[in-house]
Write a structure and sequence with these properties.
heterodimer; A: alpha+beta; VC0802-like; 2 domains; 6-stranded antiparallel sheet; elongated; B: alpha/beta; Rossmann fold; GMP Synthetase, Chain A, domain 3; 9-stranded mixed sheet; 4-stranded antiparallel sheet; 25% strand
Chain lengths: 127, 433
């Protein structure tokens, strides 16, 4: 399934992530998953939330550089060996992954994948 | 000692006569050979025959850095290319440098100016001079080199960089004079104190010759103390020739301008009217002998004053005060001339940039730091880390190729750079010089 992710550019500065959480909290947006990719002077905060548009509006109003990125969300059982078959398909088909991260919800695992060809990636793992 | 007492100590009357004769010649020569200046004089209704003495100089139109850019690369040259034996180049605003061309006579006169300076600092053929200015397009290295060669010094063309080798050769050769930018001299001085195996008492240094960037009396005191030298200012600019347009004497009380070759005026930068000795205004030069690229009433944008009082050293040549600032926004960073507009034009080449930026110049451990904070268009903050890092690298690389300096670039969040209601503030120069 292709879903929307928030990508927020944040400078490496104490309290910057705190601000993001405060703004989303006040806007009544629930965060389902997030990850941070960083270098020495800035980070890219990637978030999956329950109401993407409301989150974007609230963050933009506070001057954050936030953009929506489409990502593939893979849903599989939270058991040993569940992810491997999917990964085998992707590598066999030559799908190159830009980044990915995972979280669990109850007995299910969700894996967020960003690739250069989302449609194809989504099709491959759905089959 | 005085290198050329006949010129340097000429009576003011004799100097006036010489300047007048040379001005008449250079104006005619430039009028005949440089099309744009010919047209400019015509537009002002001035003919070469109207110029009979140096007192008539006020009738002549000015030249500016913009002219040298507009007529890039060689349209301001007066001599044919077959007579040009050297080029130098300094940075310009739009990525195009300003190119200077020199004939053999120009190089001789330039090194004459440097030789006068070095002699005034007490150097002679018995000195070993280490030239740690950059060699190349920059006039510092080769300019100082030829002047020192003329004096007969033993010249060590160290150029800049490789500090430990600089110190090793300075020690082992018994170098007596160091010539470089004052900030590099301070860096060398600190390295001398902090590098194991080196100490100031191993050195035989007596004299420091520093220029190409502004420096203060405090910096002079620090350099003299740390290196055990007397530190002297050498002044010059590529458009006029290079280092050695003037220099201090043993009294370190103003920079003597070799005005038999480079005629200085001070003008009010707003009205362009000449100002008297002692009044601070914009420094203007006329090259009385240049053949390759003569400049007439060239506006340097440097703010200073001239002092015509007779100096205790016996030289009659006017003395220039410290440069008090600029009439434009030019910055000198690590000896390199930088215009914020150059930086802006590079930034605007990148569609990702919003045009909001802040240049921060500081001096940390005696080295100029050059930081650039940059905002992107809100939709250009990519989710892709490597794309962001590549963008950063591209901008740093492009800037380095245009202005010749590597900056410490920070991409910052939108709205992070302070907005101002009036003229945008793009530069914070935190150096205390």
């Amino acid at each position: 399934m292709i879903i929307q992710q928030l990508s927020i550019f944040v400078q490496n500065k104490i309290g910057r992530f705190t601000e993001v959480t405060n703004i989303l909290g006040q806007a009544g947006v629930n965060m389902e998953a997030f990850t941070v990719s960083e270098n020495s002077d800035f980070g890219i905060l990637r978030l999956i939330v329950d109401d993407t548009q409301r989150a974007v509006d609230a963050l933009r109003a506070a001057n954050f550089a936030v953009n929506i990125t489409d990502v593939v969300c893979l849903d599989c059982a939270d058991t040993p060996g569940s992810i491997a078959p999917f990964m085998n398909i992707l590598s066999r088909e030559g799908v190159s992954i830009e980044y990915m991260y995972a979280f669990t919800m109850g007995d299910r695992s969700r894996i967020v994948i960003r690739t250069d060809d989302l449609e194809r990636c989504d099709r491959l793992i759905s089959e | 000692m005085i290198w050329n007492p006949e010129k340097e100590c000429a009576s003011r009357e004799e100097l006036h006569r010489l300047q007048s004769e040379r001005l008449v010649n250079i104006v005619k020569y430039t009028y005949d050979n440089v099309k744009f200046y010919h047209e400019r004089m015509d537009a002002c209704g001035v003919k070469p025959s109207d110029i009979r003495s140096i007192d008539d100089i006020g009738m002549l139109p000015f030249m500016t850095k913009q002219d040298l850019r507009d007529y890039y690369p060689t349209e301001t040259f007066a001599a044919p290319m077959s007579e040009i034996v050297r080029f130098h180049a300094s940075s310009g605003t739009t990525g195009k440098p300003i190119v200077a061309g020199y004939t053999r006579n120009d190089l001789d006169n330039w090194s004459e100016g440097v030789a006068r300076c070095l002699t005034a600092y007490g150097l002679s053929k018995h000195d070993i001079i280490q030239i740690s200015y950059g060699y190349g397009l920059f006039t510092g290295g080769l300019g100082a080199h030829e002047g020192a060669t003329k004096v007969g010094c033993s010249v060590l063309p160290a150029s800049s960089g490789n500090t430990s080798k600089q110190l090793l050769l300075m020690k082992d050769l018994g170098v007596t004079a160091l010539c470089c930018t004052p900030s590099y001299a301070l860096f060398l001085a600190e390295s001398l104190h902090s590098t194991p195996g080196f100490s100031p008492d191993q050195m035989n240094l007596k004299v420091g010759i520093f220029g190409a960037e502004p420096w203060s009396e405090n910096m002079r005191a620090e350099l003299e103390d740390k290196l055990g030298i007397k530190a002297y200012d050498i002044y010059g600019l590529t458009e006029v020739s290079g280092p050695g347009v003037g220099g201090e004497c043993e009294y370190q009380d103003g920079t003597h301008i070799w005005e038999d070759m480079f005629y200085p005026e001070i003008i009010d930068p707003n009205t362009c009217r000449p100002l008297d000795y002692g009044q601070t205004g914009e420094l203007v030069f006329t090259t009385l002998l240049k053949e390759g690229m003569p400049v007439i009433r060239y506006r340097t944008r440097d703010l200073t004053h001239l002092n015509a009082d007779r100096c205790r050293c016996g030289r009659t040549m006017v003395r220039m005060g410290k440069i008090m600032g600029r009439t434009d926004d030019m910055l000198i960073v690590r000896g390199v001339n930088v215009f914020p507009s150059q930086i802006e034009s590079v930034i605007l080449e990148f569609a990702e940039c919003s045009g909001q930026y802040l240049i921060t110049i500081d001096r940390i451990n005696n080295n100029d730091t050059f930081q650039l904070d940059l905002e992107l268009r809100p939709d250009c903050y990519s989710d892709n880390m490597s794309r962001m890092e590549n963008l950063k690298k591209e901008i740093v690389g492009r800037l380095a190729s245009v202005i010749g300096l590597k900056c410490d670039l920070h991409i910052v969040e939108p709205g992070n750079i302070e907005r101002s209601c009036g003229k945008a503030k793009h530069v914070a120069d935190l150096r205390k010089i």
